[in-house]
Amino acid sequence: MACAEYSFHVPSLEELVGVLQKGLTDNFAEVQVSVVDCPDLTKEPFTFPTKGICGKTRIAEVGGVPYLLPLANKKKVYDLNKIAKDIQLPGAFILGAGAGPFQTLGFNSEVIEVKVKRRTGKLNFVTCMRQTLEKHYGDKPVGMGGAFIIQKGKVKTHIMPAEFSSCPLNSDEDVNKWLRFYEMKAPLVCLPVFVSRDPGFDLRLEHTHCFSHHGEGGHYHYDTTPDTVEYLGYFLPAEFLYRIDQPKETHSFGRD
Description:
Elements: E1 3-7, H1 13-25, E2 28-37, E3 58-62, H2 80-86, E4 93-95, E5 102-104, E6 110-119, H3 125-137, E7 143-152, E8 154-159, H4 172-178, E9 180-185, E10 188-195, E11 206-211, E12 218-223, E13 230-237, E14 240-244
Parallel strand pairs: 3-14
Antiparallel strand pairs: 1-14, 2-6, 3-5, 4-5, 6-13, 7-10, 7-13, 8-9, 8-12, 10-11, 11-12
């Protein structure tokens, strides 16, 4: 499989704190962004297999939505152990949504902690951070990943049906009719990956999946209780992007 490597712009954690603090304030009533030691993520509610998300951070986007839509290409099966070798991190800790895992070595070091409460704007938590970075850094793409908890409130999510669609899905409307949408309640652990601007690799700019210890989980869209929602997250910038098996034919739907 073809694998292209790209070096992200990597601001310091201290610089990112200021940028995100300013941008999130436009969308949430209470915002606190700081640099902290990464908490032990093996403990609840995260229950990750490693303590931290630090190390040689990179984003691997493997395949893409055009391999799922209009019809699923069932021949596209990927081995995460091989992907870890392709990105030069054999044995790496991999986390993130299915279409864009964020790789680390699982070290415990400093990360960016983001606390926000009560959404006052129209953007969801991840989109607000991504658009803030795009506005500030422009044509210098910044990639980030990590984990966050929805501590209070409810969110709109979707899951895919058990079977792939046998009929071609040719628009966002078609896709939304096929997907199954739900409102899920906190606490939810979310695994986001986002890139401020596509440097020319047909990326899904943001993608977040969530899980819980009460049996709910799926693809995160946005919170449905803006007056009470609370988020707590830990993030790091990625050093590199690895674009693996990029579709040669593409489209723009099915990426919400």
